[in-house]
Write a structure and sequence with these properties.
It contains eight helices and ten strands. The longest helix has 17 residues, at 68-84. It has one domain: Copper homeostasis (CutC) domain (TIM Barrel), CATH 3.20.20.380. It is of the alpha/beta class.
C-alpha cells in the first residue's frame, strides 16, 4: 500500500515524510483547493529525496476549464518541474461540456516525459466517470485521484470499487478526500485500491507573541497532523 499525503507547504511536506508518508502531493493555497507551488518552494522541495514529491500543476483555484493563457502557464510549469527533477506531477483539465480534456491533458503528459502524471479530482467533476476513466487512460496518466464524484470518498465506495475493477491494472485508482485512520482500512478493503490519499490537514495557531487585536484576525495556517499520518500508516500494517 502507498499512502500519499497532500501538503500545502514544504514545511508540512517534510513533516509528513518524517512521519512516514510514502509520497507527497505538494500544493499551495489550501483555501483554493491547492495551486501550483511557488518557484522557491519547488526549488527547495526538489532537493528532498526521502520520498517522491509530486507538485500540482494548477494555475488557479475554481474550475478546471483553462484559457489558452492558463494552459501556456501550465506547460511552462510542467517543463520547470521536469528540469528540477521531480519524479511526477499532478494535473487535471476538463472541457466545458464536462468531458476530460483529452487533447491538452495528453499534451502535458507528453511534455512531462519520464515524470509520472496523476490526474487529480478534476475527475470528480467530469460528466461520466466511466467514460472519464477511459479518456484519462488514453492520455497516458498513471493514476487518478478520486473521491467517487462526491465530497467524501466514504460515501462513494461502490463507484470507486467499480473504477478499480474497470481499470484492470491499466491505471491506478487512488481514493482520497475524507480518508482518516478510522476509515482507511474499510476504504481499502471495499475498493481494492493499492494506493490511498489523505491531506491529514490540521490548523495551527500562530506563534506570534504580539497580534494586533484591531485587525480582528485569527492568524492560523494549514499544516499536517503528524499523529494522524502515523496512525493511518499503522492501520496499513
Amino acid at each position: 500500500m502507498v499512502l500519499e499525503i497532500a501538503t500545502f507547504s514544504v514545511e508540512a511536506a517534510i513533516q509528513a515524510i518524517q512521519a512516514g508518508a510514502h509520497r507527497i502531493e505538494l500544493c499551495e493555497n489550501p483555501q483554493e483547493g491547492g495551486t501550483t507551488p511557488s518557484y522557491g518552494a519547488l526549488v527547495l522541495s526538489a532537493k528532498i529525496k526521502n520520498a517522491p514529491i509530486f507538485p500540482i500543476i494548477r494555475p488557479r483555484g475554481g474550475d478546471f476549464l483553462y484559457s489558452p493563457t492558463e494552459f501556456e502557464i501550465m506547460k511552462n510549469d510542467v517543463v520547470m518541474a521536469k528540469e528540477l527533477g521531480f519524479p511526477g506531477i499532478v494535473i487535471g483539465l476538463l472541457l466545458a461540456d464536462g468531458n476530460i480534456d483529452v487533447q491538452r491533458t495528453s499534451e502535458l503528459v507528453t511534455l512531462a516525459g519520464n515524470m509520472h502524471v496523476t490526474f487529480h479530482r478534476a475527475f470528480d467533476r467530469c460528466l461520466d466517470p466511466i467514460k472519464g476513466l477511459e479518456d484519462v487512460i488514453q492520455t497516458g496518466c498513471k493514476r487518478i485521484l478520486t473521491s467517487g464524484q462526491v465530497p467524501n470518498v466514504q460515501n462513494a465506495l461502490p463507484l470507486v470499487q467499480q473504477l478499480v475493477q474497470l481499470a484492470k491494472e491499466r491505471i491506478i485508482i487512488m481514493p482520497g478526500s475524507g480518508v482518516r485512520a478510522n476509515n482507511i482500512n474499510n476504504i481499502i478493503r471495499t475498493t481494492g485500491a493499492k494506493e490511498i490519499h489523505s491531506s491529514a490537514r490540521k490548523m495551527f495557531d500562530s506563534n506570534m507573541q504580539f497580534q494586533k487585536n484591531s485587525m480582528q484576525e485569527h492568524m492560523q495556517y494549514t499544516g499536517v497532523d503528524v499523529g494522524e499520518i502515523k496512525e493511518m500508516l499503522s492501520q496499513l500494517i
